[in-house]
UniProtKB/TrEMBL annotation:
The lineage of its organism: Bacteria, Pseudomonadati, Pseudomonadota, Alphaproteobacteria, Rhodobacterales. The keyword Aminoacyl-tRNA synthetase does not apply. PROSITE patterns: CYTOCHROME_P450. SUPFAM superfamilies: Cytochrome P450. Its EC number is 1.14.15.12. It comes from Flavimaricola marinus. GO terms for molecular function: heme binding; iron ion binding; monooxygenase activity; oxidoreductase activity, acting on paired donors, with incorporation or reduction of molecular oxygen. Pfam families: p450. Transmembrane segments: none annotated. Cytochromes P450 are a group of heme-thiolate monooxygenases. They oxidize a variety of structurally unrelated compounds, including steroids, fatty acids, and xenobiotics. Belongs to the cytochrome P450 family. It comes from the Bacteria. This is Biotin biosynthesis cytochrome P450.
Length: 400
């Protein structure tokens, strides 16, 4: 089946298409740009089974006799090659080892300690906006907030955060050959910056996750420079990019629904439930990275060959009527809400507590400061395969 995950009609109202997918079976085959032929789960049960079967499905094609990522992406410049060996592409003990070194920094208790700083970042961003003029809330608020937050968590000095943000900004563009080429100069500067910082922090570590990782030991283990680079760049990019779309989706919901806005103003403690429903209904991350079947098998009624690509269609799971009552409805106070917005299994999103906190703080701070803020013009949908959000969201903070 042909499935265009960037079609604005699908993103606005995905349920008819998702229903047709489920009618075809628990696993359907399609072609996705830059990925190729891939099987997609269509149900909540199928997505969970896929993501919780690390013996049957792996992330590293090289472990099942295929080409490793470094061979598949042979055309990438040399400075990018270490990034292909990052935590997102590891399995088993290698993944467990790397993840264990950063888990504590992203634990709920650590993120709760960061909330006052998140509020300060949000306030500073709103201070710089002219409430009398319309602004794009994505570029002025939804994007810089998580970007500044991950810089703070990593320990990037404030005086360097502006240039670091500038270097990484093209990564948010379209995933096309031209888009990749446009992103490479900034990524080169980013990798040079971090490698120099590793050396500096070995001599004089600063507070922050980079300093912790430079010094970390797991028994007698220490991260190599290539492992450090892969870890930090992945955390930096993944740690802010998808959260931008969670925040933009949430603000779009709140600012177009006066009853929802007034409910949050009256009971700000309910913002957590709202964020969970945005994660479910709007699914900022609509699908996982493809996994590879480790052997010939039958999964969700389909015969698979070793090496076949299979991905969890998270938006399909999140709109599955077998799991969620009235899945097409946006229910801000939905309980229970066992969505897969962050995935599940060994690769469940490391930064999920940070993303939740950033979205909650972004919403409540904006409503505290500008309770009458409203949409002011046509929103532009993001056109990125697998992501659901807005590239532009015009807002007037203080309507006339």
């Amino acid at each position: 089946m042909q499935l265009d995950l960037t079609d604005p009609a699908f993103l606005t109202d995905p349920d008819e298409t998702l229903s047709r997918l489920r009618a075809e079976g628990g696993l359907v085959r399609t072609r996705i740009p830059l990925i190729g032929q891939v099987w997609l789960t269509t149900t909540d049960a199928g997505a969970r089974a896929l993501l919780k079967s690390p013996d049957l499905f792996v992330r590293d094609f090289g472990t099942v006799g295929g080409k490793p990522l470094s061979a598949k992406f042979w055309w990438l410049p040399g400075f990018m090659k270490p990034l292909l060996a990052g935590i997102l592409g590891q399995d088993g003990a290698d993944h467990t080892r790397l993840r264990g070194m950063v888990d504590s920094a992203f634990a709920r208790s650590s993120i709760d300690d960061l909330r006052p700083k998140l509020r300060s970042i949000a306030d500073t961003l709103l201070d710089s906006a002219d409430p009398a003029k319309p602004c794009d809330i994505v570029s002025r608020y939804a994007r810089p907030l998580p970007l500044t937050a991950i810089c703070t968590l990593l320990g990037v000095p404030e005086e360097d955060q502006g240039k670091v943000a500038h270097w990484v900004s093209p990564v948010s563009g379209p995933v096309t050959p031209w888009g990749i080429a446009r992103a490479l100069p900034g990524l080169w500067r980013l990798t040079r910056y971090f490698r120099a910082d590793f050396s500096a922090q070995r001599a004089a570590p600063r507070p922050g996750l980079i300093g912790d990782l430079v010094q970390v030991r797991d028994g007698t283990d220490r991260l190599s420079d290539d492992e450090l680079l892969a870890m930090v760049v992945v955390l930096f990019i993944a740690g802010h990019e998808t959260t931008v779309h969670l925040i933009s989706n949430a603000l779009h919901r709140v600012l177009q629904d006066d009853a929802l806005r007034q409910g949050l103003i009256a009971a700000p403690e309910t913002v957590g439930l709202l964020v969970e429903e945005v994660l479910r209904h709007d699914s900022p991350v609509m699908m996982t990275k493809p996994l590879f079947a480790t052997r010939d098998t039958t999964f969700e009624g389909q015969a698979l060959k070793a090496g076949d690509q299979v991905a969890a269609l998270l938006i399909g799971a999140n709109h599955d009527p077998a799991r969620h009552s009235e899945p097409a409805a946006f229910t801000a106070d939905r309980r229970p809400n066992a969505h897969l917005g962050f995935g599940t299994g060994p690769h469940v999103c490391l930064g999920m507590q940070l993303a939740r906190a950033e979205a909650q703080v972004a919403i409540t701070t904006l409503l505290d400061r500008y309770p009458q803020a409203q949409l002011d013009g046509a929103a532009q949908r993001l056109r990125r395969v697998g992501l659901n959000g807005f590239s532009k969201l015009p807002v007037r903070l203080a309507p006339k």
